[in-house]
Amino acid sequence: MRPEDSSGDGFGVSPPRRPRLRTKLSAVLVAAAAAATPALTACGADYEQGTINIYAAADGFDYITEVAERCSADSSGEYTIATHMLPKEADMQRLQLARRLTGNDAGLDLMAMDVVWTAEFADAGWVVPVPGDMASEIEANTLAGPLETVMWKRDDEPAKRPYAIPMWTNSQLLWYRPDVMKDDLGRRSAPTTWDGMLADARKIGDAGGPSQILLQAKQYEGLMVWFNSLLASAGGEVLDPDDPTKVTLTDTPEHRAATVKALSVMRAVATAPGADPSLSNSDEGTASDGMEKGIGAFEINWPFVFAGIKENGAAGEAQIMGDSLTGFKDIIDATADNPTDPRIAQVNKVVRTKFDFAPYPGIVKGEPARSTPGGFNIGVASTSEQQDLAFKAAACLTDENAQKVYGVRGGTPPTREALYDDAEFKLAYPMSEVIRRQLDEGAAPRPATPRYQDISTAITATLSPAGRWDPERKADEIAAVTQRAIDGEGIVP
Questions:
Q1: Most CB atoms closer than 10 Å: which of 31, 208, 306, 331?
Q2: pLDDT higher than threshold 50 for residue 150
Q3: What angle do CA 383, 59, 74 make, to 5 degrees?
């Protein structure tokens, strides 16, 4: 099974947080960096004219290295890209980058940035804004959701501008059992709302089928992603997009109603008859495993699960597939890293008889859902002594050829809209049109703020255990802890 990102939790999703974390996390990182000053002096010596150093997370690193070799060769000697691996955990990635940045490491040119880091890195002066011509190209060719994750306006600037270059993105889908739907409900189509999914799960359970809705709800970033998607689908938001210091969870009757509705859905999923008993410990891996074992009627997860069930099914380890995929093992093994062989279409067709996808479910019937995008962007470090050359290298590392490698072979959807019309990409991603719509028309990026890490930590701690609370009271609690995180008061859970 292809693993998810550095967070283990969907590309661009952050890992589980430590139980307690100071709200001024940038200050903590700076202090940690200062403590490491002797080591950083040596790091600065890594600078070499014409060598562009990029630091990237472990997951997807091999594909970045492959593309870097192509870009270096195509530059005709103008530059050579050297790749350096960061840890899998997003907190440790940020810490290592912060140490180098605050240590003025001239050997740090490019960095792969989680989509929620843009505001923090921009306000700290750690990342350089994208030049005008390149910024215009990004804005013209990038899907709306991923584009929003690179935009930020510092207090001394008149308007938002790109502070990074989109590299890859991600969007969660609804995964379901069409065979179970047909047997127990008399239809194969998936529900379009959370209320509809809950009703279907209950009916399936009453008929003796699997009743669990599998998703990510333990105290980590996956829980924040779930809450953010529900909140946006209900018409709410955590912060005012025009004033990231203003909490908008309960500031108006309409916003309060949206927050309460999102929380009510979470409680309904957690307390439904036949609900996942380990919901508060669930993540991407447990959801995927549970679905393959046949205990789930529905699953919310990233697209990696489609490749995973094919690989596990070919080995006879995906119970819901039975032995239907073992005869395709040679094809599946041969196309695991490059699923563009036309024969894979037959495999996909078989998989979808028992494991299919649908758009992320909405809150209000007839109104589109909003889903939280993941992903990574590339930033040019302010410490770089060759920023112009770094931007050239970054442009190559994120062009259509590069994003096709990351998408088709690496399993991470592209940010460039044109690739969604590419025949090989569409073959590898039968769900490509759903992903494109969700990223362009229905994306709900997490709140853009330099204090995002503090906000996420506070909200996920307040929500856990998921659904075991009163939504009305919990709405007030979340608004209060979010405001404290924004204000930098004390220590958040």
A1: 306
A2: yes
A3: 60
C-alpha–C-alpha distance, residues 482 and 476, integer Å: 10
Provide the greatest CA pair distance for the chain. Answer: 68
Q: What is the residue whose two structure tokens read 């014409």?
A: 50
- Burial profile 416-436: b = 16 or more Cβ within 10 angstroms, e = fewer: bbebbebebbebbbbbbebbb
| pLDDT tens per residue, range 79-95 | 999 999 999 888 899 99
Find residue 161's DSSP bridge partners: 152
Token pair listed for 207:
């008929």
What ranges make up the beta strands (E) of 86-241? Answer: 110-114, 151-152, 161-162, 165-170, 173-176, 212-214, 239-240
Single-letter code of the amino acid located at 7: S
Residue pLDDT, tens place only, 151-197? 999 999 999 999 999 999 999 999 999 999 999 999 999 999 999 99
Read off the amino acid at residue 96.
Q
Tokens encoding 368:
């589109």
User: Considering the entire predicted model, what is its pTM?
Assistant: 0.91
Q: Any alpha helices (H) in 48-143, and if so which ranges?
A: 61-74, 90-102, 118-123, 132-141
The string over 65-100, giving b where at least 16 C-beta atoms fall within 10 Å of a residue's C-beta and e elsewhere, is: bbbbeebbeebeeebbbbbbebebbbbebbbbbbbb
By the 8 A CB rule, do 199 and 222 touch?
no
Element housing 296 (H / E): strand 296-301
Angle subtended at Cα 15 by Cα 12 and Cα 17, rounded to the nearest 5 degrees: 135
What is the number of alpha carbons within 13 Å of residue 112 lying toward its C-beta? Answer: 30
Domains of the chain, by residue range, sit at 21-170+374-440
Give the architecture (CATH level 2) of 21-170+374-440. 3-Layer(aba) Sandwich (3.40)
Tell me the three state secondary structure of residue 21: strand
Burial of 122 by CB count in 10 Å (0-12 exposed, 13-18 middle, 19+ buried)? Answer: buried
Task: List the beta bridge partners of residue 357.
Answer: 175
For 249-294, the pLDDT digits (tens) are: 999 999 999 999 999 999 999 999 999 999 999 999 999 999 999 9
* Nearest-5° Cα angle at 19, 13 to 24: 75
Determine the straight-line distance between the first and last CA of the chain, rounded to whole angstroms. Answer: 34
Q: Which two tokens stand for residue 10?
A: 């969907």
> Cα–Cα distance between 493 and 491 in angstroms, integer?
7
292 three-state secondary structure? helix
